[in-house]
Amino acid sequence: QVQLVESGGGLVQAGGSLRLSCAASGSIFSINSMGWYRQAPGKQRELVAVSTSLGSTNYADSVKGRFTISRDDAKRTVYLQMNSLKPEDTAVYYCNAFLKRFTVSTYSAYWGQGTQVTVSS
After folding, report:
1. Which of 15, 48, 93, 95 could pair with 22 as two cysteines, CB 3.0-4.6 Å apart?
2. In whole angstroms, what separates CA 60 from the centre of its chain?
3. Mean local confidence (pLDDT), 95-112
4. Do 34 and 20 form a contact (C-beta atoms < 8 A)?
5. Average pLDDT of 6-12?
6. Rounded to the nearest 5 degrees, what angle is found at the Cα of 33, between the Cα atoms of 24 and 96?
7. Measured between alpha carbons, how far is 79 from 68 in angstroms, rounded to an integer?
8. Which residues, 6 or more positions from 56, have their beta carbon under 8 angstroms from its beta carbon?
9. How far is the C-alpha of 80 from the C-alpha of 51, rounded, in Å?
10. CA 37-113-83 angle, 5° bins
11. Nearest partner of 79 among 49, 107, 120, 46, judged by Cα
12. Is the pLDDT of residue 109 over 90?
């Protein structure tokens, strides 16, 4: 009923840039927050950046000044512009949305399938 479809991952050299996109579709009544998490091999999934419906944003300390999150509410899409990429940014990046469906009375978290970002040194 709800899908989050990510795109934009790939292989890039250190210092390069990538832009991730995530589009939400389905029977969505309202979206509160949309954001990005990542999981590197052998590590726990961690928050990268989040954007709320009130316009506030929050970033992991490790990406501040390099990554920028933005969203287009009309398109139900969130973006992550990643600049000055480092090898330690290598991970699977997951889109997350906290939203309410038409047929459900509460908000729930939904996840995309993940997109691989690999930064070579």
Report:
1. 95
2. 12
3. 95
4. no
5. 96
6. 55
7. 8
8. none
9. 10
10. 45
11. 49
12. yes
Q: Give the span between the Cα atoms of 84 and 45, in whole angstroms.
A: 21
> Sorting pLDDT into bands at 50, 70 and 90, what band is 55?
confident
Inter-CA distances, 102 with 30, 34, 53, 54, 57, Å: 8, 18, 18, 21, 26
With cut-offs at 50, 70 and 90, classify the pLDDT of residue 23: very high
The backbone torsions φ and ψ at residue 88, rounded to the nearest 5 degrees and listed phi first, read: -70, -5
As a whole number, the mean pLDDT across the chain is 96
Smallest CA-to-CA distance from 33 within 45, 15, 49 is with: 49
Secondary structure string (H, E, C) spanning 54-80 = CCCEEECCCCCCCEEEEEECCCCEEEE
Residue linked to tokens 């840039």: 17
Q: What number of other Cβ atoms are within 10 A of residue 58's Cβ?
A: 14
